[in-house]
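Hello,

Our lab assistant flagged a job as stuck in the queue for most of the afternoon. It eventually completed. Since we weren't sure the result was trustworthy after the delay, we are filing this so someone can double-check. Below is the sequence as submitted and the structure that was eventually returned. Let us know if re-running is recommended.
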Amino acid sequence: MTVAEALEIYEVEDVADINPVPRGYELIDGELVEIPSMGVESSLVLGRIFYLLHGWCEQTQLGIAIAGEAGYRCFPWKPKQVRKPDVAVILCDPKTFIAPKGDAGIVPDLVVEVVSPNDTVVDLDTRVREFLRAGTKLVWVVNPDTREVLARRADGTIQSFTEPADLTGENLLPGLRVSLAAFLPPLRTAPTV
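-- returned structure --
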């Protein structure tokens, strides 16, 4: 869908009034910006991480895990901004949480961004910084190519996790401990000659 098609479908004069923001787009500084496609490997990693986080939420009943196209309008200094993290966890009572029908004005407690072939370092870093500034407590930046997870925290600290280390939920998601191999793709080996 092009920006023109999105405007035509939603019949709005100001794109910032679109709610929810159309599939495959984010609202950046009041303009619809197409989100680049992920690729199969990154999508597989995203799905595995969502599965693990959803399992933790179901087991502990301490929150909800949301994947993919959910938009967040949680940037008070940028009211015409909607970001769509790959995975988010909102700590809450899942039995009483009422999910918004459109974009959420809620700040996710955990955001996961999976690096994909079409991501740029600048765009990814901007997304992470915006969520942390909005109040997200922890962001995991997962890089399938380097097999590394960067844990970026609200206090500005950054920690790198590589195999064989386990990734933990720290104080935010108590009891969560998972091997990186549980969600990273298998190691690629060079063909033998």
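-- support follow-up --
The delay was a queue issue, not a problem with the job. The result is valid. Residues 6-12 have pLDDT under 50 and may be disordered. Helices lie at 3-10, 40-60, 121-134.
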